[in-house]
Specification:
This protein has a single domain (2-116), classed as Rossmann fold (3-Layer(aba) Sandwich), CATH 3.40.50. The chain is 46% helix and 21% strand. The chain has helices spanning 10-22, 33-42, 59-68, 84-93, 105-116; strands at residues 2-6, 26-30, 47-51, 74-79, 97-100. Strand 1, helix 1 (10-22) and strand 2 form a beta-alpha-beta unit. Helix 1 crosses helix 5 (105-116) and helix 2 (33-42) packs parallel to helix 3. The termini are close together. 32% of the residues are buried.
């Protein structure tokens, strides 16, 4: 699968990208909301993994804009907030799943496998 990972935390990016690449996925990384949104609009990805708290434009706004632009592929939120209202807000914006951090590489890989059949 071709995965766009949008996260500004260097340690998370390295850990997540290494985990997904070891499973054979192609991982493209962007580190802020505007860059991630632009990349997702310009290129086709099987899955977008999107941190909710990003510089420049938060992940919920990015997701909402991607859906408004017609992006129908799977978009998964990553957030350190598991509060019900935050999850509801994210799902209302168009996320297909909402994963809370910290997330282990094994749990991330399992979540990505769930979307592999959709892609």
């Amino acid at each position: 699968m071709r995965v766009l990972l949008i996260d500004d935390n260097a340690m998370n990016v390295e850990l997540f990208a290494d985990s997904l690449e070891s499973d054979g996925h192609e991982v493209v990384v962007e580190r802020d909301g505007p860059s991630g949104r632009g990349r997702a609009l310009r290129e086709r990805f099987d899955l977008v993994i999107l941190d909710v708290q990003l510089p420049g434009l938060d992940g919920i706004a990015v997701c909402r804009e991607l859906r408004a632009a017609g992006v129908t592929g799977s978009i998964v939120a990553l957030s350190s907030s598991a509060m019900a209202e935050q999850v509801e807000r994210g799902m209302a914006a168009g996320f297909d799943a909402y994963l809370t951090k910290p997330i282990s590489p094994a749990a991330l890989r399992a979540a990505v496998r769930r979307f592999a059949s959709v892609a």
